[in-house]
Amino acid sequence: QVQLAESGGGSVQVGGSLRLSCVISGGTFSRYTQGWFRQASGKEREFVAAIRSTGGHTYYKESVKGRFTIARDNAKNTVYLQMNMLKAEDTAVYSCAAGAGIILSSIRNPGAYDHWGQGTQVTVSS
Q1: pLDDT-based confidence at 115, cuts 50/70/90?
Q2: Residue 64 half-sphere exposure toward CB, CA atoms < 13 A
Q3: How many CB atoms lie within 10 A of CB 31?
Q4: Among 113, 78, 111, 79, which residue's Cα sits nearest to residue 99?
Q5: What's residue 88's pLDDT?
Q6: CB–CB of 15/86 below 8 Å?
Q7: Can you give the three-state secondary structure of 64-104, one letter per residue?
């Protein structure tokens, strides 16, 4: 059974940084495309970033480009989301997700991912 566990959330001020981690167990880590999604209160879940299992290609939501970086460590079965220059609108519950065989046109679609973590709260205040 594949399990994902996020950590690293918390409260920061505008302009601050956080690094989220997601450890994946029970599956073949190197097979999966990993994604980060977020859901703000009262809003729908939205794509933040994704990284391919092969080649390490990365994809980002437009509003986080240049501020967020997704990376993976296959040896540690872990995917990271480094978040810099945080804004109040980045406040949300962040969840990591994993899926195999995701085509490029679906990489921003949460429905394409098979496995999800429980999420970690990120609060950015001014």
Answers
A1: very high
A2: 25
A3: 12
A4: 113
A5: 98
A6: yes
A7: HCCCEEEEEEHHHCEEEEEECCCCHHHCEEEEEEEECCCCH
Query: What is the pLDDT averaged over residues 61-86?
Result: 96
**Contact status, residue 74 vs residue 29, Cβ threshold 8 Å:** yes
Helix/strand/coil for 2: coil
pLDDT tens digits, residue range 16-71? Answer: 999 999 999 998 888 899 999 999 999 999 999 999 988 789 999 999 999 999 99
Written as six digits, the tokens of 63 are 């509003």
CA distance 66 to 23: 24
Instruction: Record the tokens describing residue 111, joined without a space.
Output: 């429905």
Do 34 and 47 touch, CB atoms closer than 8 A?
no
